[in-house]
1-deoxy-D-xylulose-5-phosphate synthase
Amino acid sequence: MAQNAELSATRPLLETLADPHDLQRLPPDLLPQLADEIRGFLIEKVCASGGHLGPNLGVVELTLALHRVFDSPRDAIVFDTGHQAYVHKLLTGRRHRFDSLRSRQGLSGYPSRAESVHDLVENSHASTALSYADGLVKSRALNGERDRAVVAVVGDGALTGGMAWEALNNLGAAADRPVIVVVNDNGRSYAPTVGAVAAQLDLLRRGEGAAVCRNLFTDLGFGYFGPVDGHDAVAVESVLHRARDLRRAVVVHVVTSKGRGYAPAELDTAERLHAVGVLDPATGRPLGTAAKSWTGVFGEELLKLAATHEDIVAITAAMPGPTGLTAMAERFPERVFDVGIAEQHAVTSAAGLAMGGFHPVVAVYATFLNRAFDQLLMDVALHRLSVTFVLDRAGLTGPDGPSHHGMWDLSLLSMVPGMRVAAPRDRVRLRAQLRAAIAMQDGPTAVRLPKGTALAEIPAVARMSGLDILRRTPAGALDVLLIPIGPLAPAALEAAERLEAQGLGVTVADPCWVLPVNPALASLAARHRMWVTVEDNSLAGGAGSAMAQACRETGSRARQLTLGLDRAFVAHGSREQLLAEAGLDSAGIAGAVLNALDMPSRPAAVARRAG
Ligand SMILES: Cc1ncc(C[n+]2csc(CCOP(=O)(O)OP(=O)(O)O)c2C)c(N)n1
Ligand SMILES: CC(=O)[C@@H](O)[C@H](O)COP(=O)(O)O
Ligand SMILES: [Mg+2]
């Protein structure tokens, strides 16, 4: 390694680091310069691509210390949620790929096993790292590899999730198995972290005498080091060495600041630029105009409803802003509950609120409801409780990749007795269907909405028995019934035009309420040669499966075609790209229909003459 002066003067330190061993050879007095370079790099790249800027600015020194003390990948470093692993990626040879961050075929915004041997956990769902660590330390013990360290980096927010405590319960009971739990305590999830755990960490953070010697971690059997200034790389390095040498279960409590070193993030009192779109790096302000999102329309309508219906309460799992509850929380703070990153608890707490005479609205990303399925099924639906689930980010979300796509909610909810699910196609339907869902007092309801700009009104040309007919073929030929689910209506309408140019008579019907299947939809389908469902959900048990079952039950013999997402994980990319790749854009829909009817696509003029 070149001398200090030579190193720091010749080229950016960051460019001299091909892998963690180069970092380990760096003299400690150059670490502050390296940290500055990393922050500048993160600000430049993440402002250009969007991503998790605040969380990664907060873990620069911590990540440097981790890779200097531990020998990844021989030692395992597991990041909880993984949104804060950009620095880890920089230090493990991926600096050159950051211009492609979160874009199709580009660098993932989370750890990726395909990208690097240093990456272990790809799942972006919080509160899992300690359970992985529990399994890893057990494997080390069984393999006689106790000298290979296991380190789990878990945020204060992730520590409010139940799984984290299930794991701590196990890890603490076998404290002779060496595991290093690094609590990255910045006091926030998006907003300030809530609950008794957060309060205990605050006590520790402030170095309250007794708390440091005996606390909730030591009571569970862990050693405890902290609180440590998480922005002093040398101090963190020193305490990590001590933790490692302890060779038992130990918690290292590191205090960091989300958004550190970038004024627009540090001044963002709401969320410290936790997850951002493309920004102007000079100001930290979004580039481009913010169109009204589905989330924004939901939040507006919920506030109106809450103002006239005192029984409405709302619950969020540490995401009041991203799920649209901010306005209601400001106006009716006593009726909005942030339970921490605790979706299972959120759902059963909602059941309790419903038993108490309220109508809870649980606002959650569709993908995060997966982990609360049993609570929905057995704590809400079994008791036929009136809880409304507003599933944001339903369908392909885009840049957050496989564990963020909300592509299983229709499959899960189709199994729940008494569950009614709406999928609004536009902002007008969203307002109406939300109102209708909350008005239902005899069981659970759900309204699913995608990420992005809310579609303007898509008017119906007719309504029949709860169905919105969006387009009827002028000729009246009932060849194909297209059944788009929610926001896929525009693609279906464009596909209808393509198919009519091929001489087919096409009806487009929006079921509005997707589950249970409206018998009128099955009847309408039976009058067509073929019906086609088009859904932004897995084909395994989704709306198409439910429709096929409903048609079987009515004895319909119409041909069927179900278009949706394969039983596979979908990579990151833009929502539009991913929908097109799944064949859920107008060309894909029309092509699939022509293929199913054994009709080669012909030039429109020829097709019309053929009739
Ligand atoms: C089960 C689950 N619920 C919600 C989220 C959304 N989410 C992503 S990061 C985050 C906050 C994480 O806070 P913390 O663990 O303290 O990490 P920090 O961002 O502060 O580093 C949340 C709620 C998630 N990833 N997983
Ligand atoms: C890591 C995590 O789960 C969230 O921060 C998520 O990335 C936010 O997604 P949106 O940007 O779609 O709100
Ligand atoms: Mg945090």
Observations:
- The mean pLDDT is 95.
- The two ends are 77 Å apart (CA to CA).
- The first helix runs from residue 4 to 10.
